[in-house]
Amino acid sequence: MSDSVESLAIDDSDLELVLLYVDGELGGDADRRQVAEQLIAANAAARAIADDMRATKVAVRELIVGEAAAARVTADLSMVRGRVMTKIPPAARPAPAPEKSAGFDPIGWLRALGFGKVSVAFGAAMVAAAWIAVALRPPSVDPRTANAAAVAEDAVIGDQPVIIEEMEVDGESITVKPGVEPDRPTVIWHFADAKPGEG
Amino acid sequence: MRHGTPNFNGGRRHLLTVVGVCLAAAVLSQPLTAHADGGTAGFTIRIIEGSKGAAPKVDAKVADLKRELETLHQEFNSFSLVASHPLRLGVGQRQAVKLPDGADLAVQLLELVAGPPPRVRHQLELPKSRTVRSVAPGGRTLDVRPWGDKLIIICTAVDK
């Protein structure tokens, strides 16, 4: 591996090393940990995979905990709220109570601003449209070197094996993560919007 | 009745013009896609269950997804194939399969789009969402749904 030019590819053994490192499974192996750190520092593909994996793990941890807790509170709260909110004019909605917002919750924040079922669907459609729009842009870098978001920006439509054209959601959020390489699947996360303590 | 002939010819010209315009409009209005009445596309839907096990375990039948599944490591480390459904759908056809949580997943083939690259437009319906996807042959999507303390992972592959 050259010091001056970052490598754009990663082989399976290096990939495994990166995954183990991000998982914290190299705690007792200082040598391999050091190799992994050097690899992530020097190899853009390794760095992108490590960043992507960290981001996914955080998102999964946060959102799944919320989902599981919400399922215990009420199985279908978000559906009921979605229907109700479409019947209430935004102007008539009370101002959000500040003490309810413990930490930043983007969905709760949007709802507090009067966004409901229709708006969430519209927002999802806008996200999909934006994603398709950026996917139509010509590539500027090798997609393998970028993280998931940048892959979407830098892909051309002809190279994208999967294009999400439309989304319609009711009571859930969808997160699209394009495959990091052309032969990898696009991952679509479905998360229930309801969080414990809302509504 | 010689004076009638020019009128007949003029009428025929008009008729031919109208027919020509109609034909041209019909040709131009055809989308640049192959609707292929009677065309079919094959899908393979694999239902995978993700859970937290004592030791990491990835079913050999989903080994091709190991890299994606490994990003869930620590949170979920055990992945097993619950069901595999090969489907062949005609344009407009819809088929539903049962998920482990009792919900239905439905796939509808919307259109076969001529390439390059050729794409299979289809709609995937889950209980709270509907997405339209345009996927090249061999392309795959993974829909991940939390299910209590487990995950339901749906791999939808468009056959090559």
If you had to describe this structure to a student in words, what would you say it looks like?
The complex is a heterodimer of chains A (199) and B (160). Chain A is mainly α. Chain A has helices at 12-22, 30-42, 44-73, 77-87, 106-112, 117-135, 148-154, and strands at residues 162-169, 172-177, 186-192. Chain A has a two-stranded antiparallel sheet. Chain A is elongated and about 50 Å long. Chain B is an alpha+beta fold. Chain B folds into two domains: 1-30; 40-158, no CATH class. Chain B is built from two helices and nine strands, in the order αββαβββββββ. Chain B starts with a helix and ends with a strand. Chain A binds chain B through residues 15, 19, 23-24, 52-53, 56-57, 60-61, 63-64, 67-68, 71, 79, 158, 160-172, 174, 183-192, and chain B through 65, 67-68, 70-75, 116-117, 119, 121, 126, 128-136, 138-146, 148-149, 155, 157.
Give the arrangement of secondary structure elements:
The complex is a heterodimer of chains A (199) and B (160).
Chain A: H1 12-22, H2 30-42, H3 44-73, H4 77-87, H5 106-112, H6 117-135, H7 148-154, E1 162-169, E2 172-177, E3 186-192
Antiparallel strand pairs in A: 2-3
Helix pairs in contact in A: 1-2, 1-3, 2-3
Chain B: H1 4-29, E1 40-51, E2 57-58, H2 66-70, E3 78-90, E4 94-98, E5 104-113, E6 119-126, E7 129-135, E8 140-147, E9 150-158
Parallel strand pairs in B: 2-3
Antiparallel strand pairs in B: 1-3, 1-9, 4-5, 5-6, 6-7, 8-9
Key features of this structure:
heterodimer, A: 199 residues, mainly alpha, two-stranded antiparallel sheet, B: 160 residues, alpha+beta, 2 helices, 9 strands, 19% helix
Could you spell the SSE succession of chain B in H and E letters?
Answer: HEEHEEEEEEE
DSSP helix count of chain A? Answer: 7
Distance between the termini of chain B: 67 Å
Oligomeric grouping of the chains: heterodimer
State the largest interface.
A-B, 41 and 36 residues
Mean pLDDT of chain A: 57
The shape of chain A is elongated
* Number of discrete helical segments of chain B: 2
Strand percent estimate of chain A = 5-15%
Helical residues, percent of chain B: 10-25%
Quickly count the domains of chain A: 1
Distance from first to last alpha carbon of chain A: 55 Å
Sheet with the most strands, sense and barrel status of chain B: 5 strands, mixed
Overall, the morphology of chain B is: elongated
Rg over C-alpha atoms of chain B, rounded to the nearest angstrom: 25 Å
Domain count of chain B? 2
Radius of gyration of chain A: 20 Å
The profile of the biggest β sheet of chain A is:
2 strands, antiparallel
